């Protein structure tokens, strides 16, 4: 059974473990292993995640979610509000062995319900991320633009996917 709930500080080790596994699975052929480890050590440091969870507790609209499957933490997703009706999906990661069980779609549905009056949800996805792109396309997101991004010397094309939400 899939359960979607709000994040807590106790989830931080799970988030770090899921980030490592999913990044190696998703980006292992896109970025070097050194780049992935360096990125994860910064973006998913305990200090950064504590700050993110604490901000979440202050927010009137909770936007950092955890997925459990049969009581095991298997994924996480987080949005950021851009304006009154638009949110960016910053991260959505699910352990590879739990893909195609509807967990990603459950996250999207939970955001649509919890972030009302949301009208648009968007995400930037690496062009080489075939798994992520297929997920967004299956979930009804449309490709709307591209940009070139440089992170620590890595130059990659990012594709913006948008989901228009009708009320």
Helix and strand composition category = alpha+beta
Helix content: 25-40%
Round the Cα radius of gyration to an integer and report it: 15 Å
Strand order of the largest sheet: 1-2-3-4-5-7-6
| Number of DSSP strand runs | 7
Overall geometric form: globular
Summarize the structure.
The chain is α+β, with helices and mostly antiparallel strands and 167 residues long.
Question: What features would you describe in this structure?
Answer:
The protein is α+β, with helices and mostly antiparallel strands. 37% of the residues lie in helices and 36% in strands. The protein contains five helices and seven strands; from the N terminus they run βαααβββαβαββ. The protein has a seven-stranded mixed β-sheet with strand order 1-2-3-4-5-7-6, with helices on both faces. A hairpin with a 2-residue loop joins strand 3 and strand 4. The protein is globular, with a radius of gyration of 15 Å. 25% of the residues are buried.
Features:
167 residues, single chain, alpha+beta, seven-stranded mixed sheet
How are the SSEs placed, and which strands pair?
Blueprint: E1 2-6, H1 12-27, H2 33-43, H3 46-58, E2 64-69, E3 72-83, E4 86-94, H4 103-114, E5 120-126, H5 130-138, E6 142-151, E7 154-164
Parallel strand pairs: 4-5
Antiparallel strand pairs: 1-2, 2-3, 3-4, 5-7, 6-7
């Amino acid at each position: 059974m899939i359960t979607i709930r709000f994040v807590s500080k106790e989830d931080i080790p799970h988030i770090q473990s899921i980030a490592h596994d999913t990044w190696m699975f998703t980006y292992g052929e896109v970025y070097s292993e050194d780049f992935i480890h360096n990125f994860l050590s910064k973006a998913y440091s305990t200090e950064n995640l504590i700050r993110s969870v604490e901000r979440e507790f202050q927010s009137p609209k909770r936007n950092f979610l955890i997925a459990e499957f049969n009581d095991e933490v298997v994924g996480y997703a987080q949005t950021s509000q851009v304006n009154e009706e638009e949110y960016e999906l910053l991260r959505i990661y699910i352990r590879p062995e739990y893909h195609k069980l509807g967990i990603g779609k459950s996250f999207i549905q939970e955001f649509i319900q919890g972030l009302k009056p949301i009208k648009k949800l968007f995400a930037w996805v690496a062009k080489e991320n075939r798994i992520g792109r297929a997920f967004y396309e299956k979930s009804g997101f449309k490709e709307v633009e591209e940009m070139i991004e440089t992170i620590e010397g890595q130059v990659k094309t990012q594709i913006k996917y948008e989901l228009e939400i009708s009320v």
